[in-house]
Give the backbone structure.
Amino acid sequence: MSLLDWLVLGGTLLFIVGYGTWRTRRAGHTMDSYLLGDRQAQWWGIGLSIIATQASAITFLSTPGQAYDDGMRFIQFYFGLPLAMVLIAVFAVPIYQRLQVFTAYEYLEGRFDRRTRTLAAVLFLVQRGLSNGLSLYAPALVLSAILGWNINLTVWLIGGLMIFYTVAGGTQAVAVTQQWQVGVIFTGMVVAGYLLVHYLPADMGFTEAMQVAGSQGKLNLVDFHFDPNDRYNFWSGMTGGLFLALSYFGTDQSQVQRYLAGRDITESRLGLLMNGLVKVPMQFGILLIGVLLFVFYQFNAPPLTFNRPVHDQVAQSAEHGPSLRALEDKHCQLFAAKRAANTQLVEALRSHDGSQLAAAQTQVQASNTATRALRTEAQALLKKAAPSAEAKDTDYVFLTFVLRYLPQGLVGLLIAVVLSAAMGSAASGLNALASTTVVDLYRPSRPHLSGSHCVQASRWATIAWGVLGIGFATFAARLENLIQAVNILGSLFYGTILGIFVVAFFMKSIGGKAVFWAAVLAEIIVLLLFWLTDIGYLWFNIIGCALVMVIAACYQRLAPSSN
Amino acid sequence: MPTPSETEKPPLLPSWRAWYWLVLGALAVEVGLFTYLTQLFAS
């Protein structure tokens, strides 16, 4: 990173944090003001907050790498989201807004009883508390690997700035900073996409780039074949993806708090619907950058592995270094053949000669198969030589391109994109953790507390959860495959929480005792299924939700008088 | 009883139902477009 990059990065982050803190310097005298920004948010602010909360740093690090490696089929995961936005706008928003609640779980006490509210709040706190720490750790891991930054310092930098403005201005500070963060994110991604097209071979247009990618299976946007073991097809998106979106946007306080801050039902609904309209095209754009990266690396030599630190560590080892160098020599030869085959493919596409096109495609596929086999062999070698290191390198693809090919100043902007996304999503989580701790656990047993005392308690809860998240993130470096573990953890709890809310909204005859024990039993069954079967974790959202509904209905029927 | 803001008309479109169909219609158009692109570039 050059001096200009540091100036752009530092200037961007400090401006956003400084402006957000200054704009909200008078916020936070009452609980309404501190936790919900006096319920004055407009639809566009709510929409931007919802987008910034969902888009974490890993969205911009992993998603392009995923498209580079696996094509665009990941987009199907989001097909259930617009439908979920409509369902939440129809059923959940009027209830939350009419009751003027601070948290989603507060509603459960009025509908059922306090222990059901506490159960849902605790499930949320466990799941979000862990994943919030991870959303700091994941970008710090990649940035430390590529830029050589100290991982703990990076975690403290992101976490410290985020705690500072979240404690100072509460929900309003989170919302104001998110509006600027989304602006930085969109600017950075548009610039990266434009430069990628600009860096393609001089005589190659965008359409030809898409044809090169499509002929190699990267534009696999929609697959209508039903396969329960395939995470990304149309049907898994419309079922598993729908239930995940319903759980996340309808019952996770880090999202619910964004639209509870709306001025009225109209503003909250429009904010959610804005997300429903924007999300799929936005993911398409991010995945498209990954596909353009793939085409770029058909004509510019990619490294054998994008995870540079692991590569360097193994290259220096006396035992495995020579094997790695031999693989790299082979990789260079393969790349020369692949570039020639792709050049022939482009010429065949221009000449519209069917036989020439078929021959070129056969050659490209053969070189791709050989390259993939070589990369698999290299990853196995890296894993053998450095067992504790992450051999999978898709998270590093986009940032490696940024650092190597983008001009000075823009590198700083793209690093600011990653850090802005990390802070934007983690700040919402932190804000929600503090709200739930005070509103659902601390205040109910202390009804005499004043509003100003609760605001102070919320500030301290924000600091406590922030420090806990940073502590977890620094500890996370010692645990392997932690990111996937926490993603799975989310799915294990989300289904049960969604089930409680579905019963609350739609099964009016069921009381608190039935739903509480149904939720406890459903959670135990979900955990047993997780340990004893190999069901894909996306399905646990549906299983958990269905179990709560069925068990609660049976309990109510068998023991109606006990409710 | 619904509150006034629940029954009032949304901005830009005549009803909430129109807004919901707009979001779902946009999804249908996106899926259709993506299906077309998948088939176009797979051949």
The two ends of chain B are 57 Å apart (CA to CA). Chain B touches chain A through 24 residues (CB under 8 Å). Chain B has two helices and no strands. Chain B has a mean pLDDT of 83.
